[in-house]
Amino acid sequence: MIQRWFPSRPSLLARDRANEGWLVGLIAVLCLLACLAAVGGVAAERAASGWTRALRTEATVQVRPRVGETGDAAAARAAETLSGLDGVQEAAVLDRAAAEALLRPWLGEAALPDLPLPYLVTVQLDRAQPASAVTLSRALAEAGLDASVDDHSLWREEVERSAGWITALALAMFAITAGAAAAAVAYATRSGLAAQAGVIEVLSLNGAAPGTIAGLFQLRYGLLAGASGAIAALVAALLILVLRILGGSEGIIPALPLAWSDIILVSPTPLVAATVALVTARVTVLRRLA
Predict the structure, then answer these.
(1) What is the pTM of this model?
(2) How does residue 16 score in pLDDT terms, banded at 50, 70 and 90?
(3) Which helix (H) or strand (E) holds 65?
(4) Domain contains 151
(5) Can you name the residues that pair with 88 across neighbouring β-strands?
(6) Helices 269-289 and 17-56 meet at what angle, rounded to 10?
(7) Pick from 240, 256, 243: which is nearest to 47 by CA?
(8) 269 — alpha (psi -120 to 50), left (phi > 0) or beta?
(9) DSSP 131
(10) Are residues 37 and 170 in the same domain?
(11) Which of 114, 129, 144 is the last residue of a domain?
(12) What is the DSSP secondary-structure string of 140-170?
């Protein structure tokens, strides 16, 4: 395979095409798993950041109408009051149709018409300087409204903790997979060098310098590992491209949103795989000759 891609320079080393094919396939699979783990870790961190950012910039207000005031009027007055505050981007009344749409998957259609629903106002806070729950509550009280503000702080910490665990597990999986891929490259390189121990001895006895011998093996196994990494990076990039196109802006799995920059993330795979093979080959050959 490598000789077909780089045919201009004949090699002094004997070739075992069958074993080299298996070697390329094995390294490519492990590098592909490492690429997918890396992309998954980045996507998990992106999703976790999105969850926590969304929670910090949203609040919900439950309005209780006073005597002589309808619930819709009280909710509209609360939305108008909050819209003028610093740190609030938008405040809107959650009408009954929208509330029923949220409850329909859980309660079904039959129970919704007779179900008493609270009067809610959804608040979008400023991302840079969001208004606090205390500020919102004080403004509502000054406007003569009986309302409760929920800034999601009760369960935001749990979500942030869960998101952190998801990110940590994804990164740990990447570290394990990348380590396994690097170990496979190193092991395959050492095994190939062990099979050609006689060639190393012959070249040494014929006066070849240790650096020259090491360079021959570095070229062979560096190209093998680099080709494997290139195959893995190409397959990973194609998968990201397909999932990104099929899933739109958030990818096909909203919990693991993909971005076009993830393709750049897998691009160093050939260089990393080739570097591991080069270092392993050089160290192994020089130790054997020593």
Answers:
(1) 0.65
(2) low
(3) none
(4) no
(5) 125
(6) 130
(7) 256
(8) alpha
(9) P
(10) yes
(11) 129
(12) HHHTT-EEEEE-SHHHHHHHHHHHHHHHHHH
C-alpha distances out from residue 150 to 62, 88, 99, Å? 8, 14, 16
User: Which tokens sit at 248?
Assistant: 């739109």
Degrees, nearest 5: CA angle 131-70-153: 25
By the 8 A CB rule, do 124 and 91 touch?
yes
Q: 100-146, pLDDT tens digit by residue?
A: 787 777 777 776 777 788 888 989 888 888 888 888 999 999 888 88
Q: Is residue 134 part of a domain?
A: no
Exposure of 175 in the CB half-sphere (CA atoms within 13 A):
6
Beta-carbon contacts of residue 246 (< 8 Å; ≥ 6 apart):
252
Query: Using N-to-C axis directions, what is the helix angle for 17-56 and 153-195, rounded to 10°?
Result: 170
- Residue in the block written with tokens 């996507």: 43
Closest listed residue to residue 253, CA positions, set 54, 31, 40: 40
Digit-coded pLDDT (tens) for 175-198: 887 788 778 777 776 776 666 667
